[in-house]
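User: For my dataset I need records formatted as: sequence, then structure tokens, nothing else. Please produce one.
Assistant:
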Amino acid sequence: MMLCACCSYQMQAENLKTLRVDEYKLDNGLTVWLNEDHSQPKIFGAVVVKAGAKDCPDTGIAHYFEHMMFKGTDRIGTLDYDAEKVLLDSIVMKYDELAATEDVVKRARLQREINELSIRSSDYVIPNEFNRLITQYGGSGLNAATSYDATIYFNTFSPQYMAQWAEINSERLVNPVFRLFQSELETVYEEKNMYGDFIGGQVMDTLLSRYFRPHPYAYPIIGSTKNLKNPSLTEMRKFFDEYYVASNMALILSGDFETEKVLPILQRTFSRIRPGEAPDKKVVSLPPFKGKEKMKVKFPIPFLKAMGLGFRGVPANHEDQVALKIAVNLLNNANGTGFLDKLMVDHKLLGAIAMNESMNEAGILAVAAIPKPIIQSYASAEKMVWNQIERIKKGDFSDETFNSLKLEQKRLYASALENIDSRATIMMNLFSQGKNWGDYLEEVSKIESITKEDIMRIATKYFSKNYLCVTKSTGKYPKDNLPKPDFAPVVPKHAEASSEYAKQLEQIPIEPVKPRFIDFKKDVQISQLTPLVTLYATPNPLNDIFTLNLSFGIGFLEQPKLMQLANYLQFLGTDSLTFDQFRTRLQAIGSTISFDVTTDHFIIKITGFDNHIDETVALAGDFLLHAKADDKKIRQLVDDAKVTQKAFFKSSDNVANALLEKVRYGEQSRYLKKLSLAQIKKLKGKDLLDIFDRVRRVECNLHYCGTLPSDKVITLIKQHIPLEDITVASHSPYIQELQSYDKPFVYFVNMPDASQSIIYSYVKGNAVDDKHSRHASRLFSVYFGGDMSSLMFQEIREFRSYAYRASGRYRLPSNAHKGKPGEFTTILSTQADKTLDALGILHSLIREMPLKPEKMEAVKQTVTNQLNNDFPSFRTLSEKVADYRMDGFESDPGEELLNDIATMDMDDIARFYRENISNRPIVYVIAGNERRIDMDKLASFGTIIKVKKKEIYN
């Protein structure tokens, strides 16, 4: 085994092992990157393959293959692979025949034959065994993703299962088997339908097709409908043989392990992967745009204008990448002081944002602008954008601004390294881009050496007069609505069986390790500053970046105008400082301030460097007391509300969510309590600041994470934050009363352009106050709809391909609200003509939930894995503790949950189901296309109530 460690650290904390990444090469050429971090009791593990959609353009093969990698191997997921293989080989040949013919009759016959062979082969299949093994050995968050350039497979797992994780994930890559392909093909259709229904999804496909032509990036990652209908398993196997070789792959591990113990395990397991070299494909060069090239795209929202200027950007490994990031930050940045930001703040444009994304072989550099409705032309908006770009080219920005943006870039780079998940994401991206860890650190060091002249040169080079000008016209693109397949579901007979491989895994010894729980006294320093103000302080062990969040105990459920207030405050200055002066002073010292609102809290988020915390908090405190109203900025809120309202009903997900809220909470739905457009138009700046004044008097939790001792932070806070004004007790957690129904209903909103139906179910349960029942509800949720092994996922998606999304859970009210009922909700999204089929299976599961005691250990293991692997990072630890305390806990409730479920069995799940769900009225919520649904048959699930838009959205 060859070692080549990347150890050049230009960062402040260069001696910290947590920020060290060691690179190894196994004997077969596989790259291994290891990053030890013992701050959380978990490991993030991933395999990165440098093969994506660009390597099989328009076919969707890379994405198909990603799905099939969950189906097992010749050892995982099968009872008798030799017998199964005979049938699988026949299926491969049938698919090759299918791809070679367009004859409708012959295609139908081949599909039936494939279906018959699939059903027969399922006699040997153990569905979802791979996922079950990951869960059994400490895993959670199992997933995968396909991009243009790479495919990644990842999950989080508990450290004591390193040997099992390495064994399973290397075995996965030795000889994957494409079983249950016909049903998974339908699932991919559902995924494509979902993306097609996303607002702007088809627009983006059209835009990228034009922007990247003739490069393979011009084609959608998921593939075209034509190619999805004609998959070739032979080509998929060829794709695996060519690209899934050791030299083209990397194993990424970040988390709680010891390198010297892990390396022998990885050598023993991952060295089994085939050596070899991936094809060396020629990079397709993108031609420069010739002058101002024009195109129009259709967008289904009237009234709204939108345009984009597309330039040729840089690929991920380009020497100009770092400088270009800073140039783009001169247009938009975190403090809202960019040249384009100011066009919005001053209401000269409705919106303007610069984009700079780099793929491996090309980059997207663009500016999107939204002209003011009716009165502003595209030409006027474009001229404004160009004026700001020209300022960068001419160097019309101060040294202070330039240096502050370099400081912001350093803060962003350092912040991205703070926790296991974000650091692992960087590692995955770097490898897929052909970089190493040293390259990332070198980018940080490059920031300091960049000059103002560099930025001017870069801006002139890339923001040229050769560009693509895109304007929006009102309209929509036709959708490829495939009819539901006319073949029988493939339901394996051995869903809970175990392969010989799984039995062999059980022989690997496991060191018993209990999950780590939060110690409220040791992990967080809690200080009661006043009766209604609590400071939660946690140390930052990695860098000198602090966060100070002021979390006031009132949210938008209690005061709906807080949504507008959070947006409005972003545009204000103070009595003594204009917006520009206030934001520029923050930016000069590397600090930011932002505002957010949740259901239960209004939050002021302050970030910066600890050596400038005095000035930062002083500026924030001055803003708290002396924010200055500006009625002109209300116009931005009005315009934003207009856009939101127009777009809302173009999204099935939005409509279904609003309809569910109406069903659950009646007139207390957040969509009905929110301010209407007419009400927003009547707002005055002074009225919003009066609300801000009332907000800052409500009970408050302060969350500090940094390098300073608590006593210094307390002194600073008392000096600048008016704690004496905080005199009003919080009502959070705020509760919405659940609606009761005495019979089944189907609430329906017609979405005539939707390919999919979004289906929710709602059942109101009883009050669940005793801890045992609350813990049983957690097990029930996992069992019924919590993950890939749940009843919903297996019966609706895995076996029948009726949905891409399929999940459900029982929601409990806060532990602080005794006597309040809980609720059971599920969601699935399905092709419109499958609505009744999917709903029928869901209905049967809810009405007569099958009991499978053999699943019980896996269900309990899932909860255990979640408790361990979700342990918060140092930056979020204090907020977790505060949330627990708000719910009435004075210690981590996970420990009691884990001890309680240890003795539970299927009877506890069944009892919870009987007491809270069984035989209760089910209310279904559907947003879908009624022309493609038999509404008479739908009525068999309950009285249909067709709902109008105004009934669910204010």
